[in-house]
Every structure is written in C-alpha cells, then in structure tokens.
Amino acid sequence: MKETKAHILVVDDELSMRQFLELLLTKEGYAVTCAENGQQAIKLLDGGFYDLLLCDIRLGDISGIDVLRKAKAIHPNAIVIMISAYATAENAVQAMNDGAFDYLPKPFNNNELKQTIAKALKLRTLTDEKKSIDVELKRNLHFDMIVGNSPRMEHIFEIIRQIAKTKTSVLISGESGTGKELIARAIHQESDRKNNPFVVINCGSIPETLIESEFFGYKKGAFTGAASDKKGLFEAADTGTIFLDEIGELNLPMQVKLLRVVQERVFKPVGGNEDISVDIRILAATNKRLEEEVIAGRFREDLFYRINVVEIKVPPLRDRKGDIRSLAQHFLDKYSRRAGKEITKISSYAVDLLEKYNFPGNIRELENLIERSVALSTTNIILPDSLSLSIHKRRWIEGLKNRRFDLDDVAAGVALDSILEEIERAYLEKAMQCSGGNRNAAADLLGISLRSFRYRASKLCIDNDSD
User: Fold this and answer.
1) Residue 219 sits in a domain of what CATH number?
2) 193 and 309, same domain (yes or no)
3) Which residue has the higher pLDDT, 397 or 45?
4) Core-most of 183, 276, 327, 462, by most CB within 10 Å?
5) Which is it for strands 266-267 and 276-277: parallel, antiparallel or unpaired?
6) Are 67 and 95 part of one and the same domain?
7) How many Å apart are CA 280 and CA 222, to the nearest integer?
8) Does the global pTM surpass 0.90?
9) Residues 341 and 262 placed together within one structural domain of the fold
10) Is 59 inside a domain boundary?
C-alpha cells in the first residue's frame, strides 16, 4: 500500500461514480472521503481541510459551482477539479473563473484524471500555479529558444553542445515546420561566433536567375542594372554562420559553384575576376531525403558529403507528443502577451485533444493553431471548444477516439491489412510513449522480443532510436 499523499473529498450524486473514484484514488495512495450531495460536502468542508476537492457539476440539491464557491470561501487555497457528464464551454469557463484548477468531462480517461490530480496537488494558489508554469517552461526551454524534453530532443541538444564550438558543417534534416532553423540558431548561439552575423538563405525562395548574385554579390556593370558593386550574402556572413535552408532546392549548376565555397571558403562575385575569401561556418537544412536525391542525379554526391559531416535529424511533432503541452503553453504565453490578453493556461482536456492529432504541419501548425485560439478566445483559459481546430481536424480526432471494429462490417467488405496495421501502430506508439522512448521497455510491455519490436517499428516507419 502506498503512503497516503493527500486527502481528497469526492462529491458526486451517483453512488457508482463515488465508489469508482474512491477505489481508483485509494489505490493511488490518497485518503478519500465521499459526499453524496452539495450540502453534505459543505458540512465536511466546514469541519476540516481537504487537500483537493473533486466535484461534479450537477448534484442532487445544489450546483457543483455553488460548492466550488463555498469551498473557496471557507478555504481560499482549496484546490478544486470539476467533473461533469454535461460538459459545456459555459460551465467550464464559469468553473475556471470561480477558481477551479481544471474541468474534466465525463467519461474521463483514468490516467488523465490521476495526472491532473497529481499536478494540482503541487499547486496551492493561482500565484503558485503561474510560478509553476513559468518554472516548467524554463525547464523545457533549451538554448533560450527550443522547447522540449522528449528523449529524441535531448539527444539533439547533446549533439548541439558537442559540435557548437567546432567549425564542422552540419546538415539538419526533417519535415517542414519541425524547427530546423531553431536548431541552426542554437548551434550558432552556442559557438564562438555568437556575436557575429547569422545569415539565413532560403534556397527555394530565390529565383534561379538571381541566386548566384544573391549568394556571391556582383560587380558594377556585370549585367544590365548593376549600377554599383553589391556585397553577397556569403560575404555578409563573414566571421559568422550562414544557414542554407532547403538546400535540396538548388539546381545542379549552382551546386557546382557552392561546392567550391564549401571546400575552400572562396568565391568570385558575378562579373568579378578576383577571389573573395570568407571565414564562415556553413549549416544547411532540407526536408528532402538528399541520399535519394543523389541517387536520382538531382543532387551532387560530393556536395552532399561536404555539407553532411554531421547530420541532425529533427523528429516530426507526432513522434514527440510528450512535448505538445509545453510547446502549446510556450505559444500561449507568446501570443497572449502580444494580444494583450491574460490567458494563463490550457486545460488538460484541451491538451488531450491536441495530443490525439498528428499535426502534419508539425510545430508550425501547432503555433498557428494556438495563435488563432488566443485571437478568438474570450476567456482566460483555452478549453477544447476554444481551440481553433478546423472541422476536418476535429472529425479526424473524433474518428480516432470513437474507432470501433465491428465484425458486421465484414459483410460489406473491409480492408483487413489496414485495420491490423492501424491496431499494431497504435499499440507500438503507445508502448513507446509509456516507456519514454525506450525500445527494450516497450517490447517488454507488449510481450514481444526487441528484435520483433524493431521489425514491426521498421515496417510501420516508426522511427525511435532510443534503447
């Protein structure tokens, strides 16, 4: 039996729910007292202090909101979590405005409830809560710019620390919106060049006819309109770092010219005869698989090996869902300050909704979603209904949540391989989540060998490197 951690008062007019919550919370080591209605709960509160109040909105006699207000009047530092099978945005907003720590709709996920209670018990006042959020954000903020503590991100942070002080060229690969530029900026900020220029070039955004002059500059009279000498971006980056974003978009002739700069750190301006030498560190990024581009003849093999001395693979957001809560809070703070609003937190149920979505647009999509939610929110907390999720995203999430496999569907025809793949993927990803990214532990949870786990993960393109 676990040592008692706290005393919880459960208020619910349904006997079965009281019994369930008492059993669940007692197993967690809490001392539990139950009240069958609001008046009984108020009498218990008058007679003593409870570390946390878990209260239904609809009770047999008075409203759970009334119990919440009375609890706050008797014990201002009381921690209250509201639950309800009749969840509405209005109820949630009212509860939060009256001092509730969180609001969970029934039926709730047991682990979510336990996590919410554990977190709530660490916080005693709204001031403490804000301090705790700030401390948590600082703990999750690395190099003053990157949010996350998932195992794969911790591995990347360690690589950054190891290579930052060197002159080694680095290739940062990953899907669009994963934060490749932030990784590059972190490398620069941790290097001895941090007080010198950091020049960003998006190789895919410059027209082919202008890219050479943008890179290397030009001399007066080099072409029509060249009325004076112009310094290029490589020269502007001298003594600092240059970041070639989406380097896979460069055409082959430009790759040839770039190769010389990477090898010798010299180049000629357009229309010039003399070499210009620069002291630069070159970082590059791509959302393409450059190895495949080399095989297809679209990217030079010699340039690939020159820029890919060290490769950092940035995981998509769907593979680091443990970071979604801290990322969402980071963007909430950023955009609520910018909008002049006091929106302090995201409800646990709203975070749960975000964690169920796969974010094909990665961190950039999450940031845009939070920015829209802040702009449209009329409350001081982001609730599920406050999230500006498009209709198709909500349907995707609800479809995942309500997925049922009905044998009667066989009569109309089913895609058995797809169904089995969906089940297998869900179990593997959940096991990795529960094991903190450790494949050995995940395999044990599923009752299979590590070799079998690796085979299944590889087959489903689930890329997890931690053992």
Assistant:
1) 3.40.50.300
2) yes
3) 45
4) 183
5) antiparallel
6) yes
7) 25
8) no
9) no
10) yes
Number of structural domains (the chain) is 4
Domain that holds residue 453: 409-459
> Which residues, 6+ apart, have CB-to-CB distance to 101 below 8 Å?
79, 80, 81, 116, 120, 123, 129
Is 8 a residue whose pLDDT tops 80? yes
Residues 268 and 382 in one domain: no
The answer to whether 344 touches 133, Cβ cutoff 8 Å, is yes
Label residues 407-421 b or e (16+ Cβ within 10 Å = b). Answer: eeeeeeeeeeeeeee
Shared domain check, 224 and 103:
no
At 358, list the tokens: 């796969």
Full DSSP string of 152-202:
HHHHHHHHHHHHTTS---EEEE--TTS-HHHHHHHHHHTSTTTTS-EEEEE
Confidence tier at 412 by pLDDT (50, 70, 90): low
- List, in order, residues 6 or more apart from 105 with CB less than 8 Å away: 83, 84, 85, 87, 349
Task: Return the structure tokens found at 277.
Answer: 């030498």
Do residues 148 and 327 touch, judged by C-beta distance below 8 A?
Answer: yes
Gap between the Cα atoms of 90 and 95, Å rounded = 9
For residues 389 and 338, membership in a common domain is answered with yes
412: three-class secondary structure by DSSP: helix
- Dig out the tokens for 106 from the structure: 């029934």
- Asked if residue 166 and residue 234 are part of one domain, the reply reads yes
What's the rounded Cα separation, in Å, for the pair 330 and 363? 12
**Residue 101 CB neighbour total at 10 angstroms:** 24
Same domain, 118 and 41: yes
